[in-house]
Design brief:
The chain has 360 residues and is mostly beta strands. The protein folds into two domains: 15-208, Tachylectin-2, Chain A, CATH 2.115.10; 215-350, Exo-inulinase, domain 1 (Jelly Rolls, Sandwich), CATH 2.60.120. Helices cover 2% and strands 54% of the residues. It has one helix and 27 strands. It has one helix spanning 179-184; strands spanning 15-16, 24-25, 45-51, 57-65, 68-76, 83-90, 96-107, 110-121, 124-137, 140-148, 156-163, 166-173, 190-191, 195-200, 203-208, 216-222, 228-230, 236-243, 251-255, 261-268, 273-281, 284-292, 298-305, 309-314, 319-324, 333-337, 344-350. The protein has a six-stranded antiparallel beta sheet with strand order 16-27-18-23-24-25, with no helix packed on it. It has a six-stranded antiparallel beta sheet with strand order 17-26-19-20-21-22, with no helix packed on it. Strands 11, 12, 13, 14 and 15 form a five-stranded antiparallel beta sheet that branches. The longest helix has 6 residues, at 179-184. It is globular and about 65 Å long. The model has no long low-confidence stretch (mean pLDDT 90).
């Protein structure tokens, strides 16, 4: 008997094109939901296809296996006939509905697997994206290290590709909980910054692509005595290097004239540090925290603000948090407190990617 938790049907189909503009859909699915293996749920979607080292095409699908979030794997010689090869990976310790948007790739001599999971936390569904570092052999993945990729609520369904910059990724920058706010603005979320991947001590390091520097319109260095900056554009980045001795009490605050704000602070814990993000929107305050260990002498922070978002990267780009906000007025003021002699803070202002003739 097949494990089912819903009554919808998800098949995998093929469309083809000669020019990338006009597409033809095949008349029948190449992988039918009705023929999935025993134990595989009706959540059966988000195919990722590649040509593997054994000269076979591989396809992974997000699903659940006997009630546990899983990734199913198929293989083919011609992209037409696919053979089911069992689960690539099953989340044994996580309670949840299924995995979505799976991805797997080789990186710096190891394999990295990405899994966006509809988890059940405190009885409620929550969308969480995790990465695993491990081994991939004989259509099975063995996880050696696993971590939540982003401590904010707005980073999901990440997908990667191999390009001239190496392994590059883009995520959906939103959360299901905020869809009503997004749709009220006539769009359903946004895309994250393009990120290049590498491994650092078996942790996933995610750095914005270098091409972002082409968008910089101006830069400014904040001095010790300068604590208030008028924001020149709605897209800007803060790049800070903070001495270890200065990590308790840092306060970066971007706000508008009606009292909405995004605040970033660091705090010293007993044996580690904590990054705290506060978002105050129309009087409602949301708080997000991430404890982290600092191995280096200083902490680097890269915070990229756009019209409705913050992507915060720190700790050598191995930790990050993504956040959406829907302020009625644009951010206009940046406050930076506790700037010490040992620290440096730079602001980069960006052109819009839609600019014409170099104008914002």
């Amino acid at each position: 008997m097949k494990f089912q938790n819903t009554d919808f049907i998800e098949n995998q189909c093929v469309v083809e094109s000669d020019d990338g503009l006009d597409f033809r859909k095949w008349s029948a699915p190449v992988v039918e939901s009705a023929k999935r293996a025993d134990g595989v749920s009706n959540d059966f979607r988000d195919p990722k296809v590649w040509l593997d080292k054994d000269n076979r095409f591989k396809m992974i699908l997000g699903s659940a296996y006997f009630g546990k979030p899983s990734i199913q794997i198929y293989e083919s010689l011609d992209l037409k006939t696919w053979t089911e090869c069992g689960p690539l990976y099953v989340e044994e310790s996580i309670v949840g509905r299924c995995i979505e948007c799976p991805d797997i790739f080789e990186l710096d001599g190891q394999y990295v697997m990405l899994a966006s999971i509809i988890e059940k936390i405190d009885g409620k569904e929550k969308h969480v994206t995790r990465y695993h570092v491990g081994e991939f052999n004989n259509n099975r993945f063995i996880s050696k290290r696993s971590e939540i990729i982003d401590f904010g609520p707005s980073f999901y369904a990440i997908q990667t590709f191999e390009g001239p910059l190496g392994r590059t990724a883009i995520a959906w920058l939103d959360s299901w909980q905020d869809l009503n706010k997004s749709c009220a603005k006539t769009f359903a979320g946004a895309m994250s910054l393009p990120l290049t991947f590498s491994l650092s001590q078996n942790r996933l390091r995610m750095v914005p692509v270098e091409a972002m520097s082409d968008l910089i319109s101006s830069t400014k260095i904040l001095e010790n005595s300068q604590t208030v900056e008028r924001v020149e554009s709605s897209a800007f980045a803060i790049k800070a290097k903070l001495a270890r001795t200065h990590l308790n009490g840092l306060n970066l605050k971007a706000s508008n004239s009606i009292g909405d704000y995004v605040q970033i602070t660091t705090e010293k814990l007993d044996k580690s540090y904590e990054m705290v993000v506060l978002i105050s929107e129309s009087g409602e305050i949301r708080e997000y925290k991430k404890a982290f260990k600092l191995e280096m002498a200083e902490l680097d922070i890269h915070a990229v603000f756009d019209r409705t978002s913050l992507e915060l990267m720190f700790n050598d780009y191995c930790d990050r948090g993504s956040f959406r906000f829907y302020f009625k007025e644009a951010l206009s003021t940046l406050e930076c407190y506790e700037i010490s002699e040992e620290s440096s803070i730079k602001i980069e202002y960006y052109y819009s990617i839609w600019r014409e003739n170099g104008n914002n």
